[in-house]
Specification:
By secondary structure, the protein is an alpha/beta fold. About 45% of the residues lie in helices and about 20% in strands.
Length: about 300
């Protein structure tokens, strides 16, 4: 049988933590780390290999783009780091140039895997990756608002003293400042949350600003996004058909088209099998369209670089 392989491009805080999370959870047979700083990738691979007596038989190595050949999933976490106080959208032009080179190299060796994009601003980087690769849209996935939704569910669970796994509450839109909470569909086992406006505002503000708080405290976020990426990989490799709030290209979704943005999607071995359209309130629909228009503006600002 063909061995499953995941390639992680970018061995910074997010990439190395994601690789380690995938290794601990035994998600694949082969794990490859690629980074412009080859010594860092070698060091990470060596460090992980020293733990093999405690883990099992996963093969881990620092590789080259040639190792993308036959990979089931190629996770791109590479890019310049988000600075304290810097909005995700400010990373855009710096990261597009990096992605241009990365995707050119990937395409030399792989044309049938799944691209999983995590670098910020993730929605625009995912759109760029689709246009650059010209792969089917189902095989180019952004991490979207999966992490934001997890933060949202956690904070609701804290407020209600309920396990966040029992909280059903999506964040959709941009992975960034224009994201929106779907309070109208949020529930615990189908029951209303029973939160007042003050509680809702505090919870959403904590969700939206979580990354800024963490970056201010320790310089970067990486544990929770690594778990989110692991969740997406698991849904793909195990052909789960799981519903996850990831970023994909929309076509007349609540009046929104031609933009990557976070919405509930069914994820399985094919990538994104289909997109689930939510029934939102008028206010939520307007906020969603506003978020999409913000992302469209960013895409338009670098349209020439995407050609």
């Amino acid at each position: 049988m063909k061995k499953s392989r995941i390639v992680v491009i970018g061995a910074g805080a997010v990439g190395s933590t994601t690789a380690y999370t995938l290794l601990l959870r035994n998600r694949m047979d082969e794990l490859v780390l690629i980074d412009a700083n080859e010594k860092k990738a070698i060091g990470d691979a060596l460090d992980m290999n020293h733990g093999m007596p405690f883990l099992g038989g996963t093969k881990v190595w620092a590789g080259t783009y040639e190792d993308c050949k036959g990979a089931d999933i190629i996770i791109i976490t590479a890019g310049v780091a988000q600075r304290p106080g810097e909005e995700r959208i400010q990373l855009l032009k710096r990261n597009v140039a990096i992605f241009d080179q990365i995707i050119d190299e990937v395409l030399k060796y792989n044309d049938d895997g799944i691209l999983l994009i995590a670098s910020n601003p993730v929605d625009v980087m995912s759109y760029f990756s689709l246009r650059k690769s010209r792969w089917p849209v189902n095989r180019v996935i952004g991490s979207g608002t999966l992490l934001d939704s997890a933060r949202f569910r956690y904070l609701i669970g804290e407020e209600l003293n309920i396990d966040p796994r029992s909280v059903h509450a999506p964040i959709i839109g941009e992975h960034g400042d224009s994201e929106l909470p779907v309070w109208s569909l949020s529930n615990v086992a189908g029951t209303e949350l029973g939160l007042n406006d003050e509680q809702k505002e505090r919870i959403f503000t904590g969700t939206r600003d979580a990354a800024y708080q963490i970056i201010e405290a320790k310089g970067a976020t990486y544990y929770a996004i690594a778990l989110a990426l692991d969740r997406i990989c698991t849904a793909i490799l195990q052909d789960e058909g799981a519903v996850l709030n990831v970023s994909t290209l929309l076509d007349n979704y609540l009046g929104v088209s031609d933009v990557y943005i976070g919405v509930p999607c069914v994820v399985d071995r094919s990538g994104i099998r289909n997109v689930l359209e939510l029934t939102l309130s008028d206010e939520e629909t307007a906020l969603f369209q506003k978020s999409a228009n913000k992302l469209k503006g960013l895409i338009e600002s670098i349209r020439d670089e995407m050609a």
